[in-house]
Amino acid sequence: MASPLTLATRAAANHRGGPRPFTSPTTPMTPAGPYSPSPASAVPLLRLNTAATGGRGAEHRSDWKPERRHWLIMITLSFISFVVSLDATILVTALPEISRSLYGSSADSFWTGTSYLLTCAVFQPVIAAASHCFGRKRQLVLSLVLFTFGTALCAVAYNFTIMLIGRCVQGIGGGGIIAMTQVIFCDMIPLRQQPRYFSIVLASWSIGSIIGPVVGGSLVQTSTWRWCFHINFPFCIVGLVATEFFIRDSDFAFEARPRRMDWLGALLFVGGLTSFLVGISWGGTQYPWTSAATLAPTIIGALGCVAFVVWQVHIKPDSLLPMSLFGNASAIAAFYCALVNGFLYSALYYVPFYLMSVRGASPVRAGIDLFPAVCLLVPGSVIVAILTSHLGHFRWAIWLGLVIANVGCGLFILFDERTAKVVFAVALAVFGVGNGMVLTGVNVGTQAIAKAEDRPMAACMYGFMRSLGMPIGVALAGAIFQNAMSSALSESGLPTGIALDSERFLFVLQAMPKEDPRKATILACYSKGFRQVFITMTVISATALLASSAIRRFKMDAVLPVTTGSRLRS
């Protein structure tokens, strides 16, 4: 009797109007047993070919090599990932100037960064699920268009309302780009080889993160902050053209698309999670934690998230997210590590802020001083990628990376007005290496733990959890910084309103003479606020290290699923 894989391949060939040869009739095996397409994916969307899968046993070989078309796709995805990462950090050193120019408060500056991170995280699983219905390319193009449109809104913004709308639209597009990059790599490359080739994307992402703060600071000092958005347009246009030429659309029948997408599940997921994140972001910064303005969206959002889980488990199982992704302790621990890895991203916001306030650095100098962290993140990621591909195991990278990252966070606690530059550089370097190792280790681990047919969504869920940790980290750090600084100001007999407007107050602080005794006191209050942020980061990082002990050993030799929602054609 023909195996499920053979039947699926024949169905794909008949759907396109004729039989096509297939080199391996062997039924692929997963840890759960033979794989057969689920009813939701009865029409195969990925044309299996020996170039992508390597034929029989490709996943167990170490000599898989990409073809020219694979290289073009990887370069395209790396290029647009660079644009997204550049945009994620370019405003770090420009926020005080944007706040001054648009007459915004510290809360407005906070939401300029958080709104992007929030929408970027929330929409990733939805766009990934939609790509199973409408094809990978359509969702990637849509994400690029949304990112470009959001950039245009931000570039012409004359108040913070338009700025925040633009940042939200940018975030949706950026989240879609991240999700589709992860999913397409899963479609295309065997898991054992993924770390090696995905390191190209990680390197592009890291380069964007490295130069973002420096470029943003340079543009603010030499021109206008609006160029932080204008600079994206050439990259967006080239990315759209490259996507059109090098990434082919899926073969999915148009009539079936609207019926396959779980729109109600998507609404529950996006609405519930957004409301919850907005509530916890407001708590302790714009409104007290016990106020109705904080509790109402938090509770409504939590109920929405519970409703989504009930919908996914009991009413329409796995229609948006496969619940099997969270089916064991190893998976839950790995996704928590991804969440914490994103949480530590708040360092990219608060370390430059520390430099510009406590150390009096210029925006450009603050960006340059970040180099030890972001420059060493790339080697950490690449070395782990090579070693995990060679060894076929990943746990060591997560454990060692979290230990090193935890040491880096602990060194941040030493930062004050008199910290030596060498201590600062060493702390950032250690932090960068550790996070680079975790970045690759957890990415590979979440996929190795998942079943073969769930691997594209596991990759997307990794990106989602990491992106979700970013707004949570920035929001929690913002509340902790503001409360700690307010307390320090109150004890010193100074107005606590300085903490509420801490970013715009930098311009007042810079104008104060060094001889003014209030300046030293205010700087000490800033320093106490940052210290509490770094203590929190260290504690959260330690919880991830403890959780990682629950991750069992999984091999990285697995079989590419036939049905993944997209057909990458040569």
TrEMBL record:
SUPFAM superfamilies: MFS general substrate transporter. Pfam families: MFS_1. Residues 73-556 form the Major facilitator superfamily (MFS) profile domain. One of its GO terms (molecular function) is transmembrane transporter activity. It is a multi-pass membrane protein. InterPro entries: MFS, MFS_dom, MFS_trans_sf. Residues 12-38 are annotated as: Disordered. Coiled coil: none annotated. GO terms for cellular component: plasma membrane. The chain crosses the membrane at residues 71-95, 115-133, 140-158, 197-218, 224-242, 263-283, 289-313, 325-350, 370-389, 396-415, 421-442, 463-481, 533-551. It is found in: Membrane. Keywords: Membrane, Transmembrane, Transmembrane helix. Its main location: membrane. This is MFS general substrate transporter. It comes from Ophiobolus disseminans.
